[in-house]
Amino acid sequence: MEFRELAALFKCNKCGSCTSVCPLYQNTVHEGMAARGKVALLEAVADGRLKAGESVRAKLEDCLLCGACATNCPSFVPTTDLFLEARAGLAKDLGLPVPIRMLLAALRSPALMSLGTPPLALLQRAGIPRIMLEQLGGLLPDAVRAGLRSMPPAPLRSFRSQAEHLPTNGDGRRGTVGYFAGCFMNWGYAEAAMATRTMLTGMGFRVEAPAVVCCGVPHRAYGDIEAARDLARKNIVALEAYEHVVTDCASCGAALKEYRHLLKDDPDYRERAEKFSRCAADISEFLVKHEFPKPEGHIPLRVTYHDPCHLVRGQGIKSQPREILKAIPGVEYVEMQGADVCCGAAGSFCVTHPALSESVGRDKADHVIATKADVVVSGCPSCLTQLRAMLAAKGSKIKVMHPMELLAASCKAGGGESK
Ligand code: SF4
Ligand code: SF4
User: Fold this and answer.
1) Which ligand is located closest to the Cα atom of residue 43?
2) How much is the pTM?
3) Strand order across the 302-305 sheet
4) Considering its fold, how many domains does the chain have in total?
5) Contacts of 236 (CB under 8 A, 6+ apart)
6) C-alpha span between 213 and 232 (Å, rounded)
7) Which of 69, 94, 119 is where one domain is finished?
8) pLDDT at 418
9) Closest residue by Cα to residue 124 from 344, 383, 385
10) Nearest to 130 by CA among 149, 143, 155, 116
11) Would you call 182 exposed, middle or buried from its count of C-beta atoms within 10 A (0-12, 13-18, 19+)?
12) Residue 215 CB: number of other CB atoms within 10 A?
């Protein structure tokens, strides 16, 4: 395993600042969980004291990739970049385990996900996952139990299949948006995706949602860089003709903005990726930049907000979602303690590391409950799923919503334009 950023690795002076912000360290008080422990591990690999094998990979995967350590490191050690590079090196040297290869292959196939969603939706409507959890909870393997509780509320029809039957895509007086319907939003949170579309068309944008593939975040996280690059190229081809590329999934948005780094050594795509990443925007960023019309419908709710890691640290977006929520008449906004601390979902981490994920998620649920909010809002489908599961586990009735759902509800209540 080789490091392109070897000098960055040895910048770590072991000060320990990263331990105070690492949600896993805070829950376990285990050095190996924090960036300092992982950096020490990689230093040992880099100078030949330790062989890079499965045990090193297991330690590196004890990580949410939340970025809190990198953001708070006084020596500017790019910890998460180093961990991703090491994961890629290990994937190249050791290959990936079969279940992970299967997961990543499934995520590369929109056809497979299209086929799987309606049966999943029917099972959910019949209450099968809930019954299995209630009746067999203790007997099920941890990963299966975590998988059942981590399922998004699958719609019977994906966002794209619903949108293509609508009579209009908007009048386009302010231009056309290429909407990136990420896997989770398209197949798991179609209603929220529809709310995003409603807001954009209501502002005068024509919205088109061409067929895209997975943004590549899971492939990059597991170290399958070539698959991530292949997906990036496909998405660039699908959307590069649009002046604006907008997504409402924090993870997808961070990935689209990273394509310029991912493809910087590809002579055919370097410039295209650079331009594409500059055009990509999260919906909250886009609405604020384009001066969204103030919603008029009264929504008398106490609302709090959870910052997705891929939005607050991945894209530096913190004020815009709050600005949108505070603009809704009737909303009483309340800040929660540790709003920008990871919720513990971290993509498939909640299934591969259920105990760690739940311990972090329980802390987040406690902070949400302490606000006495009626609704907790977040712009990431993975966070929405984790928040819903963690709040339900505590018997809380607090609703979990995407910011566009609340905004669209206010516009609708105020008789705002939607097409
Ligand atoms: S990674 Fe940064 S914050 Fe953590 S111990 Fe090293 S220098 Fe300190
Ligand atoms: S990325 Fe997050 S979970 Fe991983 S070591 Fe850094 S702070 Fe801890």
Assistant:
1) 1
2) 0.92
3) 332-333, 302-305, 375-377, 399-401
4) 2
5) 259, 263, 269, 272, 273, 276
6) 8
7) 94
8) 46
9) 385
10) 149
11) buried
12) 27
Give me ligand 1 centre to Cα 17, in Å.
Answer: 6
- Identify the CA nearest to 262 among candidates 247, 280, 246, 248: 280
Q: Is residue 106 part of a domain?
A: no
In this structure, which residue's CA is closest to atom 8 in ligand 1?
15
Tell me whether residue 158 is in a domain.
no
Which of these, 97, 68, 94, 35, lies nearest to 307 by C-alpha position? 68
H helical segments located in 150-189: 159-163, 183-187
Distance 78 CA to ligand 1 centre (A): 10
Q: Which of 246, 219, 184 is nearest to 383 (CA)?
A: 184
Half-sphere exposure of 300 (CA within 13 A, CB side): 0
Domain harbouring 343, CATH code: 3.40.50
> Given strand 280-282, what is the order of strands in its sheet?
206-208, 176-179, 244-247, 280-282
* pLDDT, position 416: 62
Distance of alpha carbon 255 from alpha carbon 380, whole angstroms: 13
Tell me the residue range of the domain where 405 lies: 302-413
Distance CA 306, CA 322 (A): 10
133 burial type by CB count under 10 A (0-12 exposed, 13-18 middle, 19+ buried)? middle
Q: How far apart are CA 120 and CA 150, in angstroms?
A: 13
Is residue 308 in a domain? Answer: yes
* Bridge partners of residue 333, in order along the sequence: 303
Mean pLDDT by 10 residues, the chain (419 residues): 72 95 96 96 92 94 97 95 94 93 88 74 74 72 73 78 86 94 91 96 95 95 96 98 97 98 96 97 98 93 98 97 97 98 92 92 98 98 94 95 97 71
In whole angstroms, give the CA distance from residue 338 to residue 249. Answer: 21
- Hey, whose CA ends up nearest to atom 8 of ligand 2? 22
Instruction: Tell me how far the alpha carbon of residue 196 lies from the centroid of ligand 2, in angstroms.
Output: 31
- Give the end of a domain, one of 35, 63, 94: 94
Give the ligand 2 atom nearest the CA of 309.
2
Q: Whose CA is nearest to atom 5 of ligand 1?
A: 14
Residue 317 lies in a domain: yes
* Pair of tokens at residue 248: 């409402």
Distance CA 71, CA 77 (A): 9
